[in-house]
Amino acid sequence: MNIPEDLKFTKDHEWLKIDGDLAVVGITDYAQSQLGDIAFVEVETVGEILEKEESLGTIEAVKTVSEVFMPVGGEILEFNELLQDDPALINTDPYGEGWIVKVKITDIEEVDELLSAEDYENLLDE
């Protein structure tokens, strides 16, 4: 299981890559493996300010539809347009080209509440 050390994680299997008060958000390698083949990604929240743990969109896989939650509060700046034509990028490259949204963080202190790579790995081992 790939768990990059430079990312933060949630118990709901989202990841966050932070650059100042900007962040890139996606779902983890574990999450995409549990969902299976991803067929569609819907994010209609671009331009909205959402609270931590609010739903930012959905991922539709062959067997299920799953919500994606905000790891921290912030404004959704951008949706990864590549996912419209190739949602399977989340399956093949969840931490790279399979990112889902870019966010401007409203409260940087919320980042401290997220899991480190080691903490996330321990969560999966439970």
Q: Would you write up a description of this structure?
A:
- The chain is of the alpha+beta class.
- The chain has one domain: Beta Barrel (OB fold (Dihydrolipoamide Acetyltransferase, E2P)).
- It is 19% helix and 35% strand.
- It has four helices and nine strands; from the N terminus they run E-E-E-H-E-E-E-E-E-H-H-E-H.
- It has helices at residues 29-35, 82-85, 89-92, 117-125, and strands at residues 8-9, 14-19, 22-27, 38-42, 49-50, 55-61, 65-69, 74-79, 101-105.
- The strands form two sheets. Strands 1-2-3-9-8-5 form a six-stranded antiparallel sheet. A three-stranded antiparallel sheet has the order 4-6-7.
- The longest helix is centred in the C-terminal third of the chain and has 9 residues, at 117-125.
- The mean pLDDT is 96.
Task: Work out the number of β strands.
Answer: 9
Pick out the low-confidence regions. none
The helix fraction, in percent, is 10-25%
The total of helices stands at 4
CATH superfamily: RNA polymerase II/Efflux pump adaptor protein, barrel-sandwich hybrid domain
Strand content range: 25-35%
| Inertia-based shape | globular
CATH class group: Mainly Beta
Q: What is the correct CATH architecture?
A: Beta Barrel
- In whole angstroms, the N-to-C terminal distance is 15 Å
Q: Give the total of domains.
A: 1
The description of the largest β-sheet is: 6 strands, antiparallel
Decide which structural class fits the backbone.
alpha+beta
Task: State the gist of this model.
The protein has four helices and nine strands. With 126 residues, it is an alpha+beta fold. The protein has one domain (8-109): OB fold (Dihydrolipoamide Acetyltransferase, E2P), CATH 2.40.50.
